[in-house]
Amino acid sequence: MINRKMTKKGDRLEDTAMTPGADALIVYTDGASRGNPGDAAWAYVIVRGGSVVAWRSGYLGKTTNNVAEYHAIINALRTAREFTTGSVVVRSDSELVVRQVTGRYRIRKEHLAGLAEEVWRLMRDFTEVQFESVPREHPCIQVVDRLCNETLDARPQVKE
Length: 160
Description:
By secondary structure, the protein is α/β, with parallel strands linked by helices. The protein contains 4 helices and 7 strands. A 7-stranded mixed beta sheet has the order 2-1-7-6-3-4-5, with helices on both faces. The chain is globular.
């Protein structure tokens, strides 16, 4: 599991290890595409004190799974601002995206770099943001995966 914290230090973000506090907002995210690229969707669930306080999913059109994963985090952080400016823990089953936004992996694709920059801009709205890579078998990841699939299933099927 990747367990990283990004905190504001002036105009830059500092990366350190952390343990989430009891008052942290926990965000579970997922992105999915049927084909890569293919029809894609994102979803998140936001939990505070063991209760779901928000959830949402959205359709992206034809794109890659990694783009969908980034959109899940971006949309979740936008909504998280309604609940806190303090600690946020983002949990995702996308190890690649978690490692990219925490700086452990370089971002080689320009379109993903732009999405990562949006994540970093949104992180400045919080005192700290932690990213964790969790297994897709995690119960809350299964919920957001189901939300993605329900969103994709609700779209009319177009044959090319």
